């Protein structure tokens, strides 16, 4: 437990030493326990957080259990079809209402004493027949005061986000220019999640992978060089050719482009793509070879590099959350999404590619995880804690954005840039500094 003075000193230290615009970030911020406590309050307690895809809660009464920071929440579709997000905590003694990962219910009944809540978060009393209600509460219960605590919830392209900030910007404002690019993955067609998300624990600070997906196409040539060596791709150009995009708000992405005549995506889906995307978006999708990115703070996405399997080009799309479960540990949540109306060959091949390349046994994940784990160890070292280790974030510092690219945001030619990474750190620092000093 740090004192108020120590906490203020830490905030001052961060203000002094985190220098995104100069391209320098002190390494201790990746896994310092006191920084982590500040993040839970000032980042995860304030900003929009991705929780689920709408296809995971298809029916009235369906719900999934997720986390906002370290707080468990229920994402549920009400009997009025509206998706809402509630703190997973009973108003009586704070027991978790939903202990399972997902389900479909008419009511949530607390497993402790039986307080029951409807799908809109309303308190309904104790369970059927109101056992003991008249004896236990002869004066009656104020049902309004016992509603579940609700977060602000909005969706974009089927992606469900929530925030505890009641009066801040809307989700559309928060996503800003990133929406144009999210459409290429999540809005190009009716998408659905395949199965349930895979989850596993990695001994890494949560910002390392978030930062990687924001602006690190550079690592692919080295960390994932097996692709070229196995002949699955020609060289390592998938990490270099294309565009780096800094859409603002701390989001970031990289787009790999090919110059073949035909789109790599299935011909059967082209009409649906055309009807959902603008002409410019459709043109970019037709040239798309890969797309990686991160929505601040910790939702990552990837349309991996298309590889040739069985004479067809295949790519298994994924969505990630780097769920913090401590200052130096995270739980990976990994979803595979596919076009609901896509042909069966595409669904099968994309799933096979996803499982092989990403996911708990994915070849790419194993490459990346080792780096994040060992970086975290270094970030926990005495020298890092003392501020001796400062990391270089200067790639593309002099770069000028393109003027002719059809998509919005600051777009740079070639994927070798850390421009979006610098904005990620600026956004992070601004949130940390925005709270009160005690
Ligand atoms: Fe939920 Fe008592 S804690 S009913
Ligand atoms: Fe990687």
Structure characterization notes:
By secondary structure, this protein is an alpha+beta fold. It has 2 domains: 49-163, Rieske [2Fe-2S] iron-sulphur domain (Rieske Iron-sulfur Protein, 3-layer Sandwich), CATH 2.102.10.10; 177-434, Naphthalene 1,2-dioxygenase Alpha Subunit, Chain A, domain 1 (Alpha-Beta Complex), CATH 3.90.380. 29% of the residues lie in helices and 28% in strands. It is built from 14 helices and 22 strands. It has helices at 4-17, 33-42, 133-136, 171-175, 178-187, 207-215, 220-223, 226-229, 270-276, 279-286, 344-357, 363-379, 382-385, 419-434; strands at residues 24-26, 49-53, 62-68, 71-77, 83-87, 102-104, 107-109, 115-118, 123-126, 150-156, 159-163, 191-202, 243-248, 251-257, 288-295, 299-303, 307-309, 312-314, 318-324, 330-339, 390-392, 410-413. The strands form 5 sheets. It has an 8-stranded antiparallel beta sheet with strand order 12-20-19-16-15-14-13-22, sandwiched between helices. Strands 2-11-10-5-4-3-6 form a 7-stranded antiparallel beta sheet, with no helix packed on it. It has a 3-stranded antiparallel beta sheet with strand order 7-8-9, with no helix packed on it. Strand 13 and strand 14 (251-257) form a beta hairpin. Helix 6 (207-215) crosses helix 14. It is globular, with a radius of gyration of 23 Å. The model has no long low-confidence stretch (mean pLDDT 93). The site of fe (iii) ion has 6 residues, from helix 7 and helix 12.
